[in-house]
Write a structure and sequence with these properties.
It is a single chain. The chain has three helices and nine strands. The protein is an alpha+beta fold and 197 residues long. It has one domain. A six-stranded mixed sheet has the order 1-2-5-8-7-6. Strands 3-4-9 form a three-stranded antiparallel sheet, with no helix packed on it. The N and C termini lie far apart (57 Å).
Length: 197
């Protein structure tokens, strides 16, 4: 669901900007750390969308891991909920074009912060999207300090370009793997002498 979420965001912003998701689109999903690599030409003069970091949403971690179905108790690992930190870096040929691109992204997320299958029409030829029935995530601007920003660009190994960092919340990862199936508990018996001393 990580790739699908980022692809949905790129598709939605490109549609908002009036560009189709193809080789000429304004936004592209790629690693911004490749900006100085001469062999990677597809990120030149574009806004590059890169996954910067992920964290687990621990507040939703303590949910029951069993459910009752057809007279049996089914145990499986809980869903994992992730927050993604996504960098939108305007790797444009001119500074004014970079600022205009950044402004357009801010406007888009100002008008739409919650993404669901109902309010986000999305089609893709990628087979990964065949099983995607429901999704819901929110996007909010995340503002790192100057020191954190310095670390980010230092880690990416490139020159700083106008950029935005957004936190994409509650990406749901779920495996259908069942860890155990047990029969239902139908009766409980105890003898009173066990409780009386």
């Amino acid at each position: 669901m990580i790739y699908e979420t980022l692809e949905i965001l790129v598709n939605q912003i490109n549609t908002h900007l009036g560009t189709k998701p193809n080789d000429d689109s304004e936004l592209i999903l790629e690693n911004i750390a490749k900006q100085d690599d001469a062999t990677v030409t597809k990120i030149k003069d574009r806004v590059v969308v890169s996954l910067l970091n992920m964290e687990e949403e621990t507040t939703l971690k303590n949910r029951p891991n069993s459910r009752f179905k057809n007279g049996k108790t089914i145990y499986k690992n809980n869903k994992i909920y992730l927050n993604l930190y996504v960098l939108f870096a305007a790797n444009r040929t001119s500074y004014d074009k970079a600022l205009i691109s950044i402004n357009s992204i801010v406007e888009f997320f100002h008008s739409k912060k919650v993404f669901t299958q109902k309010n986000t029409p999305f089609t893709s030829s990628n087979s990964l999207f065949d099983d995607l029935k429901e999704f819901k995530f929110t996007v909010e601007l995340y503002t790192p300090t100057f020191e954190q920003l310095n670390y980010i660009w230092g880690t990416l190994g490139g020159k700083s370009v106008p950029s935005l960092l957004y936190k994409v919340s509650l990406i749901e990862i779920d495996s259908e793997a069942i860890s155990e199936i047990r029969p239902a508990i139908t009766n409980v018996s105890a003898k009173t002498k066990d409780f009386v001393k």
